[in-house]
Amino acid sequence: MNLYLSFFLSIYIFYMFNYFQTDIYLSHPLDVYTNKVSLLTHTEKENHICKLGNIIGYLLPIWLIIRNFLSLSKNTLKKINNIILNSILIGSLLMNMNAFVYFLPLYVIEYKNI
Question: 0.90 exceeded by the pTM?
Fold first, then answer.
């Protein structure tokens, strides 16, 4: 894992999940169900990310940086990284299309560099 790339991706995901603003809201069929849970309600601010997405926007950059300093075997680290990234990809796909679109470039870059 490249520390510089991890740092760049951390800044990207932190910004996109917490501060990026857009007028475009990508509607999702499951929005009816996610808006009933307060943690999953999409905020009215212009990035359309829920509180859970904001938490992911803080925790994922920490993981992307820390993984470079862990003394695990490369195989184990790849497995843990795959579980985390695939979980976020599937979760964002099921809950919020804006989060999915914001996360997709990070996901593609990560899998190109493994």
Answer: no
